[in-house]
């Protein structure tokens, strides 16, 4: 990760995408998707396969005279009631008819009616009967497996990491489950035992990606309360950026073959077990990648920032950052004011020369920069300085009057000789 590419720059923090601080945006997007999923689930429901709801299934090859209306009419007249009819395209080209729970006599009558109406050989007619008891057992076992999976995951994360990480991962998993179920409800795809297996698989995949990010978060936040170098949210966001490229590469690598199975398999091979498995894997992997980046880590940061210790840490870091910015602004403003003053006055700064005094000592002398003085006034200034240089005592300040008269004011009797 020491390279100069985008991966190395993200890892070092040279380039950073602020995922954690924009959590409200991600929550709003996820909330909208979840609302659509829940509405679809309440209004449309799920299309459970025969293994879950029980009933009879009739599968036979497609013929020129068979169509959906004709098949429905034959099944109803034979006592099969309302039926779900699907045409399977691809290499098989066959019809699948699913009815409710029927007795053995009625089931045989429906099969015979279909064979006679569409000239189908008895050997080409496949009949499957699933009792309601077996279907309810499958449903119960699927729910139990999902609950056990979630409980074990929460316990493991609480032991390996901490309870806040376990809660964040649990919320991300529920997010993935609801979105996947909503997609099944919107598309009308059949929910089969294969779909449940695929759902458990993608939950494990989503959890794996989340654990990788959480492990980096734990590494970045170790000792953060002592060093106080950054807030918990900033350290978590850095960890998210450091693992971003890896998460994207892993997700794309996993999604490409699944997408091939879903689209190529559904288009060429027709509906079946392969398509049921591929759909749940594709939707779940997309949702899992999204939740591990945009949901799990921001939720974790929100939970940690509620802790008084990390809340105080955020305040200290914010104050220190604000003080540094204020000092920089003050220094910049002072430099600008000085430059503006010098430019506006148009005068050069005063220079200092050194006058050598008797005994080898030296005294600094201000260079006269007054431009409005006469030559006589400048000469007076020189006399005052010379007198001060010859005296061992410090010179008296030159007054304005002395500057005007051209020298020091004489005292009375100063030039009279003393009488012996």
Give an overview in words.
With 420 residues, this protein is α+β, with helices and mostly antiparallel strands. The protein has 3 domains: 24-47 and 135-318, Up-down Bundle (Multidrug efflux transporter AcrB transmembrane fold); 55-130, 2-Layer Sandwich (Alpha-Beta Plaits), CATH 3.30.70; 366-405, no CATH class. Helix content is 65%, strand content 9%. The protein has 15 helices and 8 strands. It has helices spanning 6-12, 23-43, 50-53, 68-77, 104-117, 132-160, 163-187, 193-220, 224-227, 232-242, 244-269, 273-305, 308-345, 375-390, 400-405, and strands spanning 47-48, 55-61, 84-88, 94-99, 126-130, 190-191, 352-356, 362-366. A 4-stranded antiparallel beta sheet has the order 3-4-2-5. It has a two-stranded parallel ribbon with strand order 1-6. Strand 7 and strand 8 (362-366) form a beta hairpin. The protein is elongated and about 100 Å long.
Which residue ranges are poorly predicted, with pLDDT under 50 across at least 5 consecutive positions? 348-395, 397-420
Query: What is the helix/strand order?
Result: HHEHEHEEHEHHEHHHHHHEEHH
Quote the distance from N terminus to C terminus: 101 Å
Give the rounded overall mean pLDDT.
Answer: 75
Number of domains: 3
**Which percent range fits the helix content?**
55-70%
Q: What name does the CATH topology of the largest domain carry?
A: Multidrug efflux transporter AcrB transmembrane fold
Write the layout of secondary structure elements.
Elements: H1 6-12, H2 23-43, E1 47-48, H3 50-53, E2 55-61, H4 68-77, E3 84-88, E4 94-99, H5 104-117, E5 126-130, H6 132-160, H7 163-187, E6 190-191, H8 193-220, H9 224-227, H10 232-242, H11 244-269, H12 273-305, H13 308-345, E7 352-356, E8 362-366, H14 375-390, H15 400-405
Helix pairs in contact: 1-10, 2-7, 2-12, 6-7, 6-8, 7-8, 7-12, 8-10, 8-12, 10-12, 11-12
């Amino acid at each position: 990760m020491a390279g100069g590419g985008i991966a190395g720059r993200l890892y070092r923090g040279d380039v950073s995408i602020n995922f954690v601080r924009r959590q409200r945006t991600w929550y709003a997007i996820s909330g909208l998707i979840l609302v659509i999923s829940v509405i679809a689930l309440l209004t449309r429901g799920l299309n459970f396969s025969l293994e879950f709801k029980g009933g009879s299934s009739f599968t036979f090859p497609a013929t020129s005279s068979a169509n959906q209306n004709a098949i429905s009419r034959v099944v109803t007249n034979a006592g099969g009631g309302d039926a779900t009819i699907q045409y399977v395209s691809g290499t098989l080209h066959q019809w699948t008819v699913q009815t409710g729970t029927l007795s053995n006599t009625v089931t045989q009558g429906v099969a015979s009616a279909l064979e006679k109406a569409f000239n189908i050989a008895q050997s080409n007619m496949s009949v499957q009967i699933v009792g309601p008891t077996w279907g309810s057992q499958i449903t119960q076992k699927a729910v139990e497996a999902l609950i056990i999976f979630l409980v074990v995951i929460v316990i493991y994360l609480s032991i390996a990491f901490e309870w806040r990480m376990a809660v964040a991962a649990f919320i991300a998993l529920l997010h993935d489950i609801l979105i996947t179920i909503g997609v099944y409800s919107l598309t009308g795809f059949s929910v089969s035992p294969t779909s449940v297996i695929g759902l458990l698989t993608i939950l494990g995949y989503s959890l794996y990606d989340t654990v990788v990010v959480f492990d980096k978060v734990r590494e970045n936040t170790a000792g953060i309360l002592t060093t106080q170098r950054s807030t918990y949210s900033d350290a978590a966001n850095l960890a998210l950026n450091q693992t971003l490229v890896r998460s994207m590469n892993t997700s794309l690598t996993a999604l490409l073959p699944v997408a091939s199975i879903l689209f190529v398999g559904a288009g060429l091979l027709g509906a079946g077990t392969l398509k049921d498995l591929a759909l749940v894997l594709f939707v779940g992997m997309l949702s899992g990648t999204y939740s591990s980046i945009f949901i799990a880590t921001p939720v974790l940061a929100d939970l940690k920032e509620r802790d008084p210790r990390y809340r105080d840490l955020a305040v200290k870091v914010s104050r220190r950052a604000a003080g540094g910015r204020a000092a920089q602004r003050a220094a910049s403003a002072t430099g600008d004011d000085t430059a503006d003053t010098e430019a506006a006055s148009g005068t050069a700064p005063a220079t200092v020369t050194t006058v050598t005094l008797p005994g080898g000592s030296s005294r600094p002398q201000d260079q006269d920069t007054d431009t409005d003085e006469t030559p006589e006034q400048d000469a007076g200034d020189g006399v005052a300085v010379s007198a001060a240089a010859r005296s061992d005592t410090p010179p008296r300040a030159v007054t304005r009057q002395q500057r005007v008269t051209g020298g020091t004011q004489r005292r009375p009797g100063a030039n009279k000789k003393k009488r012996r």
